[in-house]
Amino acid sequence: MKGIAYTILPMGYLEHDEAISYAGKNRGTVENRRPQAVWERVPVMAVLFRHPTAGYILYDTGNCPGDEGDRLSPAMRRDILFDVKREDFLDYRLSQVGLKPEDIDLLILSHSHHDHNGGLGFFSHTKAGQRVVTYEADYVNALRETHQDYDKEDYVFIRENMHVPGIRYDLIHGDQELAEGIEAIELPGHTPAVLGLLVHLERETVIFPSDAVYTAQNYGPPVLPPGILYDSLGFQRSIEKLRKLQRKYSAKMIFPHDLAQFESLKKCPYFYE
Question: How are the residues of the chain apportioned to helix, strand and coil, as percentages rounded to the nearest 5?
Fold first, then answer.
């Protein structure tokens, strides 16, 4: 669609064992029975769309201010290093393109893990905060995981992120158009339903799979499943669905945590059109 443009908003980095991203990679063998763990650095990002009729659309919100403190579970503090500076928070990144959270017209949340919903507090009582579009299956699962067992150690959810004052959700189901040229695609596996985006620009189509597929290595071929997986069969179905869409539209795939691809992309304030 003519007039749609997007910019990549860097939201800092996470560092952790590579086994989180790639299940079974670097596993022991007969010749190497005690392989050395591999520590990796992965980017976190959000995507801002400029739409000719729908206004500014934000996809994900990055990490939360204060994530380095007591909000983190013991498991998070043990297993993940947060490299998130003040300029990596959403309000600063939006200011780089001359915007404030109040200027966002629609907020889309891919899923409820901490590095995707952490910045929801910036949208408390704003226009976009009154309609946060996400999949009901993912949202319900996140509530269950954060409230069923208060003593459970976790490194994908932060309980406080599920209770942000002034936020209202629009819980949707299935594939559907969210704005002309921007389609939600349901991708189970990483969670019960990750909300990916299929975006039709004037000259190309771009797929944002979010954490349904972390990196090009996960996507393959051959497919390399991640270490964090809610539904392994759903993950395989999502890979097949993405491949069909990519072939149909000769689409470009932008992965959420692929360091090599991330470093090759232009970031805000540059807009791809």
Answer: 30, 25, 45
